[in-house]
Write a structure and sequence with these properties.
Helix 2 packs across helix 4 and helix 5 packs antiparallel against helix 6. This protein has six helices and no strands. It starts with a helix and ends with a helix. The protein folds into three domains: 55 residues, no CATH class; 65 residues, no CATH class; 50 residues.
Length: 178
């Protein structure tokens, strides 16, 4: 998690860089309203790129090894990354307490991503085209997750948001029916 001081430093650096590039003076006050988007948008972009890379790698691997071996390798890598992160946090004294609900939800993440991996290996082994399967899986997941945000967490709905969801559904239809 990025601390408020680190967020201020990031923002100031960005403002100073922009000011230097445009020959304008940088504002002295930090606009905290822009920090939340700045703190998560990079992570979202990395996640999107990683999902795309994962889909391409599953497509390349499917049929070249048993689906169970591919899933085992995925799980081993995910475990190694998680263990390394946990040990690094522990070495810094940053591992906090975990609630039973947090552990249950994390197990849900593991089960869900494992199911995605198994299903993608199966689809690609059966000959599914990457250009149809990946958008179908990702856009449908996007719509379902968005609806969960609205129904469970009462996230705001705007006409622009509704248009985006409709375009996503239309996109899935157009991609699948080519």
């Amino acid at each position: 998690m990025i601390t408020p001081d680190a967020q201020d430093d990031i923002y100031k650096t960005l403002v100073l860089t922009a000011a230097r590039d445009s020959r304008a003076r940088a504002p002295k006050a930090v606009n905290r309203a822009t920090i939340p988007v700045m703190s998560w948008i990079l992570y979202a972009a990395i996640a999107a790129a990683a999902l795309a890379a994962a889909d391409v790698c599953v497509k390349l691997a499917a049929g070249k090894l048993p689906n169970s071996v591919g899933t085992l390798i995925y799980g081993t890598v995910a475990f190694a990354v998680g263990l390394t992160w946990f040990l690094a946090d522990q070495a810094r004294g940053g591992v906090g307490r975990s609630s039973s609900a947090g552990v249950a939800y994390a197990l849900g993440v593991g089960v869900a991503f494992s199911a995605v991996t198994v299903a993608l290996y199966g689809a690609f082994r059966a000959g599914a085209p990457l250009s149809v399967t990946s958008p179908l899986v990702r856009l449908t997941g996007l719509v379902v997750a968005s609806l969960c945000g609205i129904l469970i967490w009462k996230e705001p709905v705007t006409p622009r948001y509704i248009l985006g969801i409709c375009l996503s559904v239309a996109g899935v239809y157009l991609i699948v029916t080519r």
